[in-house]
Task: inverse folding
């Protein structure tokens, strides 16, 4: 079983989108039994909140099922629970380093570093561009799944 945790700032936009996109890609590939997928935040700002309406709308538009989810914050004690801890941007990397400390098992990586076009996934909370975020998340998740 490969365990993947997607992480962003608030766990209502990008990481949640990545969680549901990856779950759908895994389902379509017939590999559901091989993965456990979740998402979390580096901040506590959105704790308990559902996914952002823009995230839900974009996923539904793309035919990606949206499951039940409430924002939560990643904890230091979770490091050993995950095979891959995937973040979206430099701010998330900094937040994860504060929370987790070191990464001795090299589990932490940026989502789009799995692609041929490594860069940060822009936060649609600020940009309002859920389409671009979806395209980046899809590309990253497809590349990650192909590598696993």
Result:
């Amino acid at each position: 079983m490969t365990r993947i945790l997607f992480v962003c700032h608030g766990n209502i936009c990008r990481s949640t989108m990545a969680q549901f996109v990856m779950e759908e890609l895994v389902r379509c590939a017939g590999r559901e039994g091989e993965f456990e997928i979740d998402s979390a935040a580096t901040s506590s700002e959105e704790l308990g909140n559902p996914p952002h309406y823009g995230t839900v709308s974009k996923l539904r538009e793309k035919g990606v099922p949206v499951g039940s989810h409430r924002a939560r914050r990643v904890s230091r004690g979770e490091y050993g629970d995950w095979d891959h801890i995937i973040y979206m941007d430099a701010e998330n990397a900094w937040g994860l380093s504060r929370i987790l400390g070191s990464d001795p098992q090299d589990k932490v990586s940026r989502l789009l570093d799995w692609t041929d076009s490594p860069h940060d996934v822009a936060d649609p909370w600020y940009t309002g561009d859920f389409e671009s975020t979806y395209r980046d998340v899809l590309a990253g998740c497809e590349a990650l799944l192909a590598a696993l």
About this structure: The mean pLDDT is 98. The domain at 2-147 is CATH 3.40.50.2300 (Rossmann fold). Residues 130-147 form the longest helix (18 residues). The chain has one domain: 2-147.
